[in-house]
Amino acid sequence: MLYNDLKQYVGKGMASFHTPGHKGFKIFNEPIWNLDLTELPETDSLFEASGILFKAEERVKILFGSDKSLISAGGNTLCIQTMLRLASLDRKRMLAGRNIHRAAIGAMALLGIQPEWIIPDKDAGFSLPGRINSEKVAHNLDKIKVPSAVYITSPDYYGVLSDIQNIAIECRKRDALLIVDNAHGTHLKFLKNSLHPLDLGASMSADSAHKTLPVLTGGAWLHIKGQNLAQRAKEAMALFGSTSPSYPIMCTLDLCTKYLFERGKKDFWELSEQSERIKKIAQRKGMLVPQGQCDPTRITFSAQPLGYSGKYMSKYLRINGIEPEFCDENYVVLIPSPFNSREDWNRLERCISDIKPKRNVNFEKKLKEYSKNIFIPKAHLTLREAIFANHKKIPLENALGKIAGDIICPCPPGVPVVMPGEIIGIYEKEALKRYGISEICVVK
Questions:
Q1: CA–CA distance, 245 with 433 (Å, rounded to integer)
Q2: What's the first-to-final CA gap in the chain, in angstroms?
Q3: Cis preceding linkage at 248, omega within 30
Q4: Is the dihedral of CA 175, 176, 181, 182 positive or negative?
Q5: Strands (DSSP E) found in 335-401
Q6: Cα(59)–Cα(274) distance, integer angstroms
Q7: Is residue 95 classed as helix, strand or coil in its secondary structure?
Q8: Any alpha helices (H) in 176-309, and if so which ranges?
Q9: What is the spatial distance between Cα 420 and Cα 438, in angstroms, rounded to a whole number?
Q10: Backbone dihedral region of 434: left (phi > 0), alpha (psi from -120 to 50 degrees) or beta?
């Protein structure tokens, strides 16, 4: 049974450096199923909230300083869908950073949005996707010259932050709406100096609270600045949301609000200090961490200069009782929270301190492999046309000249090599081959 399998895994006692942020912290003082209710006269209704859920959303609104904050029990995906729906109501065009989550691609296809892509700058270090810069945003908005929206993912999966403050300034100059997928950055509000998108000038921010906070998986918030957007937000969310939202999830969001009012600033300052200490240990060992402004609580490192891949390091951590969030060929990503124990941190410090470099490591060759520019393939179909077309899977060797039917990306947080509707050329084929992809989905 799944229940027994999960209990067996939990019994291993792994140090959790992955989502969700509660790390097994007991949010409830009673069995969770006692709070698994439905819409009743006393329990309110999420999309017509006027009672206890309305009050819960008002508390979040005060906490984040928004004009409206919406509860989502459908994860950050529901918040992204809602943002894109609101943005598409009176905006003719959309710019989007190419380092985008697949949930946004699906929502764009459903809403008939065809974005114009902005490639991130390779300014975060070895093999990382990098940041969207304000100059590129301004340049592209000047070319469009119609009411537009700009969609940015920040922080990315590795903790790299784009310059939201200056992007927001450029957007305001051109009456463009700035919306941010802040899935991995809800806690940025509670750093010593807030780096939350809403405080930096964004119009909307989708926050996946469960990733770094004591919230059950699926709990998220959508924060909005601007009364016009706020008035239409519930209707937009109801278009995508379940009519049976989980009350246990919503309850943990409200309990988290109380926690953040009381301890958020203190706990996340301490977490930042602890995470920075671990990153400095990794750097002293010769490992790489992302460069430039990053989420100070996110721990991302590459041991490639020591001769170890990200996948090897992930396995090494797991053997030593540490469960990371993610790894790719080069990096390991860990997501700590204030609820990690002292033993978790001690275990991680010992593990990183004990790693020994290999001999005769040719890291310069690796650097050259990842210094090539990223190109946007030519689009033959829109996202909507490609995603809703008939598809077939074919070997990569036969894909040259075919139209991609799905997002093809080596890993969820990276920059997709090819988007639905784009033609697979020689560059894309070779890039996919390097990433170990052997089969792809194409339009028939």
A1: 42
A2: 39
A3: no
A4: negative
A5: 391-395
A6: 29
A7: strand
A8: 227-240, 247-284
A9: 17
A10: alpha
Task: Please choose, from the candidates 157, 147, 24, the residue with its C-alpha nearest in 3D space to the C-alpha of residue 91.
Answer: 147
DSSP one-letter code for 315: H
- Whether the CA torsion 270, 271, 272, 273 is positive or negative: it is positive
Rounded CA-CA distance 245/57 in Å is 15
3 state SS of 288: strand
For residues 83 and 254, what is the distance between their CA atoms, to the nearest angstrom? 22
**49 phi/psi in degrees, rounded to 5:** -60, 130
pTM (two decimals): 0.95
Contact 22, 304 (CB under 8 A): no
Which amino acid, residue 326?
F
Q: Please, which residues have CB within 8 angstroms of residue 422's CB and are 6 or more apart in sequence?
A: 376, 377, 378, 379, 380, 403, 404, 428
Sign of CA dihedral 171, 219, 274, 280: negative
b/e burial code for range 186-215 (CB count within 10 A of at least 16 → b): bbbbbbeeebbbbbbbbbbbbbbbbbbbbb
- Cis peptide upstream of residue 290 (ω within 30 degrees of 0): no
pLDDT tens column, 155-209: 999 999 999 999 999 999 999 999 999 999 999 999 999 999 999 999 999 999 9
How many Cβ atoms are within 10 Å of 356's Cβ, its own excluded? 9
User: Could you give the maximum distance between any two Cα atoms of the chain, in Å?
Assistant: 70
In contact, 79 and 70? CB cutoff 8 Å: yes
Cis peptide preceding 20, ω within 30 of 0: yes
Contact 79, 206 (CB under 8 A): yes
pLDDT tens digits for 93-110? 999 999 999 899 999 999
Both tokens of 88, joined, read 């598409």
The token duo for 191 is 């750093």
